[in-house]
Description:
This protein folds into four domains: 1-40 and 163-184; 42-154, CATH 2.40.50.140; 256-285 and 299-423, Rossmann fold, CATH 3.40.50; 454-617, P-loop containing nucleotide triphosphate hydrolases (Rossmann fold). The protein starts with 17 loop residues before the first helix and ends in a 10-residue tail after the last helix. The protein has 22 helices and 21 strands. The protein is an alpha/beta fold. It binds adenosine-5'-diphosphate and magnesium ion (MG).
Amino acid sequence: MTLTRLDKPVQFLKGVGPKRAEHLQRMGILTARDLLYHVPRRYDDASTITPVELAQVGMDVTLVGEVRNKGVIPTRSGLRIFQAVIQDDSGLITCSWPGQPWVERRVRPGDRILVTGPVRFFHGRQIQPREFTVLSRASADAPAEDPPGTIFSTYPAAEDLPQWIFRRLFELNLDRLLAQIRDEEYLPPRDRRRLGLVEISAALRDLHRPRDNARIAAARRRLAFDELFFLQLMQARVRHDATRERPGIAFTRTNRLIRALHDSLPFTLTDAQARVLREIYADMTSPDRMNRMLQGDVGSGKTLVALFAMLLAVEGGYQAALMAPTEILAEQHAHRIGDFLRDIPCRLEILTGSATGRRREEARARVASGEARLVVGTHALIQEGVKFDVLGLVVVDEQHRFGVRQRMALSEREPRPDTLLMSATPIPRSLAMTLHGELDLSTLDELPPGRVPVTTRLAGPEDRPAILRELCRRLDRGRQAYLVYPAIEESERADLLAAETEFERLRSEDLAGRTLALIHGRLPGDEKDRIMRAFQQGDIDVLVATTVIEVGIDVPNATMIVIENPERFGLSQLHQLRGRIGRGDEGGLCVVIAGRAEGEEGDSTPTTARLAAFARTSDGFEIAAEDLRIRGQGDFFGAEQHGHGTELKFADIIEHEDLIGPARDRARALIDIDPQLSAPAHTVVRNHLDSRYGDRAQLFGVG
Ligand code: ADP
Ligand code: MG
């Protein structure tokens, strides 16, 4: 990696001695570049700042003023209160920090400070700051008055590095740092114009010296693009390794089996299925390896798509494997695939943990000899001792339930098989592209026609008797149902209904005489399997459950689900639960019985908004978009962080959605022509990447 001036330690900057360098290091600011990218975390302007005289008791305000005097006041109860009086053009107000006498050390008379907090009444108006910032020290640069249009910025600061120090450091160094980063601009003007992006140096200037909100937004947009682009670059490199570096298989399509399956189907493929299959066939028949993710709602026909792909592998002379996260799911797949294959000459084998002894050895032998062409199984597929003859395609169902290593276990064999990952928990395309930039994405966004839609009803606790009557009517017709609870035991949370307690109560009262079973995550795996099987076979009328039933289990005869305390579940999770019903011919009914979350009242709370969205649509993609909007992207990146090291500081998946595709395309195009980024023309990009991703950029070898 070539070091640029921006990669020098902060110590070399003006105003930074050894002591301050140490403090900066503690905040993760090691180099000049780190300092340059240490930008304010909030901005306030006339539209958010209240003149002191207008601050009224009961309001929550942000004020800017000069400290007139200060002191710590002891009270009779022993509580020490730090108080400072601040003044702006319009008047004076007391700021009060009860129990925080140490704030005294951080504020001096003459300082300009910005405070945010509620205005209370104690011997007059006073503000109790939640947050405060020393904007400038009296000695430094305090203007007597802020010119109109001033924007106050707040840097992430620390005890030994208050705001005004950052301000001072940027006064001394910013112009030089901006001149240096100008050399690192990697987007030509034409591309910047096309994408509506300002220069990097202009962006950083506008964040450190804010002039107006539009420029701040434009600056963030530019830095968001950089973030997305370099993330995509890392992912494009992973993709390159997975698909290009070593030869994949170019399957020969003879149509022998594919045609036979087509001809035997009692229905036609949906447009979405046909489109997705074209994408998959194109990948499989090319010499590059396939590394594709297939997203589609429950019931969108993923299994059939996977089967077509597997038959292409088989007719091309290879074996294909499908791995599912549980034994029941594997059996369900094997069963359905077996049905489809009834008149098609293709031998199917099932490999799960429950087969032992001679049966297992025989099954393994058929897989190893190549007699079995299509193999469906669980983790048992990746156990030691399982050998394939010529494995050409691996399909992983519910891919998120496997660890990265498990997912890779089958695909790392030689020759490396094509890979298709399936997910029934759709996430918005923009999010999927950002989280899984190393994969290609296919989407089944259409359900086969003729499904009777599930009705969703929002109810309250008072509706329970009527709901149970409806449930019993369905049981009388021979149907089955699920009752879902957020907790297993009563003690976990006083305000939540618990599966165990409700199970006992229902069994002896409201549902006496019916066959009930209780299932939850603490039961041993084989016990869960036994109960699920009994339910599948109709030996159980009502399954009282926690979210363990969330995963793809399929019982068409179950047509009603009641979910208690739905406010405890994520939107996508609710949608998955609802997906358990509505596979049969009778219209499914999903009832959610909302308790009221603590502190929430009325009809416009986040909970009611979420549940209303859930009831309004049964489209998993719409629900996923809503989920992203409500929960924010942090949740999604948090969960995946370890795999990707993704932390997005500027990029907002919703606000900057339009930048995601271009960032990905540009990154992929660049890696296609120069996988190592070793060409001189790419040094600038390479340096950015190194400084952003450090050791992880080692993927790119030693350029
Ligand atoms: P998923 O795996 O995506 O949840 P499945 O593959 O289980 O969906 O499909 C659900 C049901 O729909 C299955 O019974 C399947 O045979 C049927 N099916 C799949 N594709 C079609 C189609 N194009 N038209 C009608 N029914 C279909
Ligand atoms: Mg499925």
